[in-house]
Amino acid sequence: MDYRLYFKSRQGELVGLLKDLVQLESPTADKKAVDACSARAVARFQSLGAKITRLPQANVGDFHLVEWPPRAGAGGDRVLVLTHVDTVWPTGRLAQMPFYIEGDKIFGPGVLDMKAGLVMAYAALRALSDLNRKPERRIAVFINSSEESACSAANEAIKSEARRSAAVFCLEPALPGGALKIQRKGRLVLRLDAAGRAAHAAQPERGVSAIEELLGQVRKLSGLRSKDVSLNVGRIGGGDKANVVPEAAWAELDFRFWTLAQKKKILAAARSLSPVVRGAKTRATVAGETPPMERTPGSDRLLAEARAAAAELGLTLAAGRACGGSDGSIAAGAGVPVLDGLGPDGDGIHAADEHCLLSSLVERAALLTVLLAGTRG
């Protein structure tokens, strides 16, 4: 079956659904707006006969799980497809970033990150339905409502669904040029709290400067930087008046790394901090974290599977790594093989020129359909 030709002949339908979803603005923090956009997408999946499970949430948009059965007699394996409906763009951004097409580029807020991926998931299941192709394994599509901000409920749901699956496909955008993402950096946010003793600035020897202590500890941790480990001192504060020795200070440090071993080294250094200013105290706590998506034998097998599927379509697939995290990182942290970046090529994520390539959307929809079918020809 030539799925590229199939989707090429239906690219108007892909664009129509993408326009529909993009024009339903869905900033993460606006539960009502996110739920409205999710409802539109879920209705499409329901029209195919998919089983829908809604996971209600009080403070963020509801999550949804779309399930699709395999052929009769297939094994018990399941593949999990990760999508998200929320965007970084506030309601009203469409007035400045309207949905439009220019050549091969489709513009609009959230069009690449990642409403195009959601369109792909629906289109692949519709193709299987229209063509009466029964997949070799069960399919589950998780629609997240809060990927763009830390949400423990979403992370727990993803880990739970990942553990029930043999493989995970994440429909985040491809790397520029179309490469898949086989690795992602992890993130660790540390908060440092330094405590000293207040005194008049005219007699600083009577006090203990928490700010000086904090700066000394930041310098210490800066020594962890390497070609693989980055550190950004993102926020810092402390003190009250210029004529008072500060008794308290704090900072937030954002570390990025490729491996769990690197994360353990950072945590060990943070836990072993000793005062640099006599009489001061420093405490380090974890304020947030995302696991790295490491390259594993399992992810290499998924990459080989994707390359075989691409070859059937007359395509070639490169693979690379990304410095940011995704829901794929969360699934990888559950110990399940993940292939990320299966969404379309494009550029401008979180920027005013956000766009995806129509030709890539067609190709990626075809690739996902072959992968989900699990059969060749």
Structure, described:
- The chain has helices at 3-8, 11-23, 31-47, 111-130, 152-163, 210-222, 260-271, 297-312, 327-333, 358-373; strands spanning 51-55, 63-68, 78-84, 100-102, 105-107, 138-144, 167-170, 180-184, 186-195, 199-200, 230-238, 244-245, 248-257, 281-290, 319-322, 338-339, 346-347, 355-357.
- The chain is of the alpha+beta class.
- The protein folds into two domains: 3-185 and 292-373, Aminopeptidase (3-Layer(aba) Sandwich), CATH 3.40.630.10; 186-290, Alpha-Beta Plaits (2-Layer Sandwich).
- The strands form five sheets. The chain has a six-stranded mixed β-sheet with strand order 1-2-6-3-7-16, sandwiched between helices. Strands 4-5-18-17 form a four-stranded antiparallel β-sheet. Strands 11-13-9-14 form a four-stranded antiparallel β-sheet.
- Strand 17 (346-347) and strand 18 form a beta hairpin.
- Helix 2 packs across helix 4 (111-130) and helix 4 crosses helix 10 (358-373).
- It is elongated.
- The mean pLDDT is 96.
Would you summarize the structure shown here?
By secondary structure, the protein is of the alpha+beta class. Helix content is 35%, strand content 25%.
Strand content is 15-25%
Largest sheet: 6 strands, mixed
Indicate the mean pLDDT.
96
Q: Give me the Rg, rounded.
A: 24 Å
Structure classification: alpha+beta
From the spread of the alpha carbons, the general shape counts as elongated
